[in-house]
Write a structure and sequence with these properties.
The protein folds into two domains: 184 residues, D-Maltodextrin-Binding Protein, domain 2, CATH 3.40.190; 204 residues, 3-Layer(aba) Sandwich (D-Maltodextrin-Binding Protein, domain 2), CATH 3.40.190.10. Helices cover 38% and strands 14% of the residues. The strands form three sheets. Strands 1, 2, 3, 4, 7 and 12 form a six-stranded mixed β-sheet that branches. The protein has a four-stranded mixed β-sheet with strand order 9-10-8-11.
C-alpha cells in the first residue's frame, strides 16, 4: 500500500494517454485498440455505466471500450475465474480472496499512481484499504454501501415522540438525527407498534443482519479476523450483545406476525406502511423513492457500546490476462473521476468511494428522500470488513436455520445452547478437518 498512499493533485482527464510500458502493443494502427469493461447491477446502473463508457470512447481515437454486463457479482466472479475476464471489471470485495488466489488480477497501485489518481483525501481510505492484499492495491475502490436503518417517517415520528417525553435521537443544528442508541431504537419500534399494527421492526435473521449489533456490543462474529475456523457466537461478549438485541427482535408485539410474513416480504410490508423499520443498503433507495405514498429516511445502525455496521465494497480491477493493461488503467482512472462516478451515483443505487462526489448533490440529492443521505458515507468509517471466506455461501446455508431459530422461534430461548450449536455447525464449514470423526483403527474395523 506504499504506492497507494502516494497522492497527485487533481484528477485524470477523460481518456488520458496510455503508458507504452504497461502491457501495450507497439506500432501504428488504423484501428483503435479494443478493450472490454465488465460491470453488474440494475438496469439503471448498467445504463449509467454505458454512458461512462460512451463518454470515454468519445474522447479517444486510439482505443474503444465495450461494456459487458452481468446480473450480479456471483456471475461476474464465475466468468472471471473461468478465464473469461474482461480487461477491466467491477468486483465485490468479498470475492477478492478468490481472485487473488487464482492469480486473476494485475495490481493497480503503480498503474493508477502513474495516471495521477489521488489515493488520499479524494477517496475513502477505508474503502481503498479494503482492496489491499499481499502489499499491493489489487483493485481501485469504486463504491461502498454500509448497512443502515430505513424508517417510515409517518410512523416513526420523532418530533411527536419527543413531545411525549420518549427517548429519541438528538438532532444536530441542521435538524438531522445522526446517531441513536439501542434503547432509542427500541423506543421507536414500540412507538410504531403501539396500536398493534403496523409493526415496529424487522432485522433479517442472518449473519449479515445480526453482525452490526454483535460488533456494536463488543462481540465478534468470527473467532479470527483473518483466518477464521469458527463463528464466535458462544463468546461471552457476543452473547451479551445478542441478549440485548434479541430482547427487541424476539418481541412478538414489535415484529411482523407469521401471517404477515407469509403473504409479503419485510421490504413489501415496509413499502405498504405495515412495517416501520428495516435494515438495508443504498440499493433500496430508487425502489423506495418510486413507492407512492411512502415517506422514509435513514439512520445508522443503533449503538450498544460503539458504532458499527457491515456492508459491501466494490472495486474496479484489471485482469492479469489483459493485453491492454495500460488502456484498462486509463479507463479505470476515468471511471473513478468526479464526472464519471457522478453519472452512476445519480441513479441512487451506490455510495461513491470518491469523497468529493459523496459530498455532492449528485449523491446527496437535496429535495429527495432520504433526507439524511449523508448517513451512508458517514457510516463507511464504522464498517467492519469481514475476513475472506471461500465457503461463504455454504456457511450461510448451514447456520441460517439456527439464526432463524435464534430470532424467530417462539417460547423461551436457550441462548447458550443455540449459540453453541451455531459455532459447532460453522466449524464443519470453516475447519472441517478439525471436526471430522476419527477413523476407526484397523483392529477395530469389521472384517470384510
Amino acid at each position: 500500500m506504499g504506492l497507494a498512499a502516494c497522492t497527485v493533485d487533481g484528477e485524470p482527464e477523460p481518456g488520458p494517454t496510455s503508458s507504452p510500458t504497461q502491457g501495450q502493443t507497439g506500432g501504428a494502427s488504423d484501428k483503435p485498440r479494443r478493450i472490454t469493461f465488465g460491470a453488474y447491477g440494475s438496469e439503471e446502473e448498467v445504463a449509467a455505466f454505458q454512458r461512462v463508457v460512451d463518454s470515454f470512447n468519445a474522447s479517444s481515437t486510439t482505443r474503444q471500450v465495450t461494456l459487458k454486463s452481468w446480473p450480479d457479482h456471483e456471475s461476474a466472479l464465475e466468468d472471471v475465474l473461468a478465464g473469461n475476464a474482461p480487461d477491466a471489471f467491477l468486483t465485490s470485495r468479498i470475492d477478492l480472496g478468490q481472485l487473488v488466489g487464482a492469480d486473476a488480477l494485475q495490481p493497480v497501485s503503480l498503474l493508477l499512481d502513474e495516471r495521477g489518481v489521488d489515493f488520499g483525501d479524494r477517496f475513502s481510505r477505508d474503502a481503498v484499504d479494503a482492496f489491499a492484499m499481499d502489499d499491493e492495491l489489487q483493485c481501485m475502490a469504486y463504491s461502498v454501501s454500509p448497512m443502515v436503518v430505513y424508517y417510515n417517517t409517518d410512523i416513526v415520528d420523532f418530533d411527536k415522540m419527543e413531545r411525549r417525553g420518549l427517548d429519541v435521537p438528538t438532532a444536530n443544528d441542521e435538524g438531522v438525527r445522526e446517531r441513536w442508541t439501542l434503547a432509542q431504537f427500541e423506543a421507536a419500534a414500540r412507538f410504531a407498534s403501539r396500536r398493534g399494527d403496523p409493526r415496529g421492526v424487522w432485522i433479517d435473521p442472518t449473519l449479515q443482519g445480526l453482525a452490526p449489533f454483535i460488533y456494536s456490543g463488543g462481540g465478534q462474529v468470527f473467532d479470527d479476523d483473518r483466518d477464521p475456523t469458527s463463528l464466535a457466537f458462544s463468546d461471552d461478549s457476543t452473547r451479551e450483545a445478542l441478549n440485548q438485541t434479541l430482547a427487541i427482535l424476539r418481541d412478538p408485539t414489535l415484529t411482523p406476525t407469521n401471517a404477515q410474513l407469509a403473504r409479503a416480504t419485510p421490504l413489501q410490508l415496509f413499502k405498504r406502511g405495515e412495517l416501520a423499520m428495516i435494515a438495508g443498503f443504498r440499493n433500496l433507495v430508487p425502489e423506495l423513492r418510486a413507492t407512492e405514498g411512502l415517506d422514509f429516511d435513514v439512520l445508522p445502525m443503533p449503538v450498544i457500546e460503539d458504532r458499527a455496521t457491515v456492508g459491501d465494497i466494490n472495486g474496479l480491477c484489471i485482469s492479469a490476462d489483459s493485453d491492454y493493461s495500460g488502456d484498462a488503467a486509463d479507463f479505470i482512472a476515468y471511471a473513478v473521476s468526479d464526472a464519471a462516478i457522478a453519472t452512476v451515483s445519480s441513479t441512487g443505487y451506490i455510495v461513491p468511494a470518491n469523497t468529493e462526489v459523496a459530498a455532492s448533490d449528485d449523491f446527496l440529492a437535496p429535495g429527495e428522500e432520504p433526507a439524511n443521505a449523508a448517513a451512508f458515507s458517514q457510516g463507511i468509517r464504522y464498517m467492519v470488513v469481514p475476513p475472506f471466506i471461500d465457503q461463504r455461501v455454504e456457511l450461510n446455508d448451514a447456520v441460517t436455520p439456527l439464526l432463524e431459530r435464534l430470532v424467530t422461534a417462539p417460547g423461551v430461548l436457550d441462548l447458550e445452547q443455540v449459540t453453541d450449536e451455531i459455532d459447532q455447525v460453522s466449524r464443519t464449514i470453516l475447519s472441517p478437518e478439525e471436526t471430522e470423526s476419527p477413523s476407526e483403527s484397523p483392529s477395530e474395523s469389521p472384517s470384510e
